[in-house]
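User: I'm putting together notes for a lab meeting next week and I want to include a structural view of one of the chains we've been expressing. I don't have a solved structure, so I'd like a prediction I can at least talk through. The sequence is below, exactly as it appears in our construct file.
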Amino acid sequence: MTRLMRIHPWLITACCLMAGPAYAAEPDLMGLDVEGVRLGMSTREAGAALDNHGYKQNGRRSFQRKDRDGMHYVGLKLNPAGEVISVEVAHFLTGNVDPDAHRDRWVKRWGKPDRRMGNPGYNWQYTYENADAVLNVWARASPKPGRDPSELRTRLVAKHQVLASRRGHEVSSKICMAIKDKPVSMLNVNDRNHLMECLRTGQLQLVTPK
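Assistant: Thanks for the context. Below is the predicted structure for the 210-residue chain, given as structure tokens.
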């Protein structure tokens, strides 16, 4: 176990995040779907969800949809295992947007935000955060209706690279024990991802070397 104390900065940062204080708002961000996409989905699952919402793939990890309301874009980021760790949606709308009404809906759905910025009647940006993920939502009314589009944006980002346990298949104790006995210099990308999950689920713990 003492081998785990000879760790790289990436592991120190991650562990500090896991041991940090509780956040003010605790919405279930890992269970939230954005246009049908949830954190931890595979590329195929995310693509199918977006297809059900009318989006067409126009890039390796980007999708778009055009309708009478305007243009809609979705961008995904994946971890090395091919699971979604970030989903961002941008709606550029030709009609009017009421930012205050969206603000009220966010509060009704997720409670008071951890951070907020904005101007009544024009734009709002709210941030919700917990130990696992960060949710940012924006609403902006066009200053020139009919010429410039109004905007609605949503961005959901996981704080950890490994999301397997959230999808019902936790890293096995056998894998955790194998990693425990492996020198840090020998850990590959998958080992590091598994190690973070073993630490998060308590199957491995960092201890002070004697």
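A couple of points you could mention at the meeting. Residues 1-25 have pLDDT under 50 and may be disordered. Strands lie at 33-34, 37-38, 56-57, 62-67, 70-78, 84-93, 115-119, 123-129, 133-140, 150-158.

User: Perfect, that's what I needed.
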